[in-house]
Automatic annotation (TrEMBL):
Classification via Pfam families: Maf
Organism: Erythroxylum novogranatense
Lineage of the species this protein comes from: Eukaryota, Viridiplantae, Streptophyta, Embryophyta, Tracheophyta
Protein name listed in UniProt: Maf-like protein
Cross-referenced PANTHER family: 7-METHYL-GTP PYROPHOSPHATASE, BIFUNCTIONAL DTTP/UTP PYROPHOSPHATASE/METHYLTRANSFERASE PROTEIN-RELATED
Keywords: Hydrolase
Domain of life per record: Eukaryota
Length: 158
């Protein structure tokens, strides 16, 4: 389910604050939609809502979703010969109890020849992967949702 929020209306001073605020705003919007619609069936297992958000930080500037066709090309060109950091958040809500937990993680990608995947290309793409020398941090964070962090937060809200 998509949250359908205006992400540009939510601004914070740092990337970690921004990804946390946006992941929580997505959770709040989805919960509001769920409460307005048919109720979730009671089950012996709790229902968990997982939301997330990811940005790239390049030379101290937060980069979000591109706003034009030209912008991703510029991003990729900028990354050539340099590197960016991916900052991602995970926010887990136990819909039965209302318990919420969220955290953020950072991963840096250092490129090999001319390509870098953060904010521009998929890490796992066969044309990109050969040029990645190292991922410092969790690879899942680069891809947009850290599995270890998600599992940790799910266990905490249960």
């Amino acid at each position: 389910m998509t949250a359908d929020i205006d992400e540009k209306c939510i601004r914070k001073d740092t990337a970690d604050e921004l990804v946390m605020a946006l992941a929580e705003a997505k959770a709040d919007a989805i919960i509001e939609r769920l409460q307005a619609g048919p109720q979730l069936a009671e089950d012996s297992c709790p229902t968990l809502l997982v939301t997330a958000h990811t940005v790239v930080v390049y030379k101290g500037v937060v980069r979000e979703k591109p706003i034009s066709k030209e912008e991703p090309r510029k991003f990729i060109k900028d990354y050539s010969g340099s590197h960016g950091a991916v900052v991602g958040s995970v926010f887990v809500t136990n819909l039965a109890t209302g318990t919420k937990k969220g955290e953020w993680e950072r991963a840096e990608i250092e490129e090999g020849i001319t390509l870098n995947v953060a904010g521009g290309l998929m890490l796992e793409h066969p044309l990109t992967f050969p040029f990645v020398e190292a991922v410092i941090g969790d690879t899942d964070t680069v891809m947009g949702l850290s599995k270890p962090l998600t599992e940790k937060l799910m266990a905490e809200v249960l």
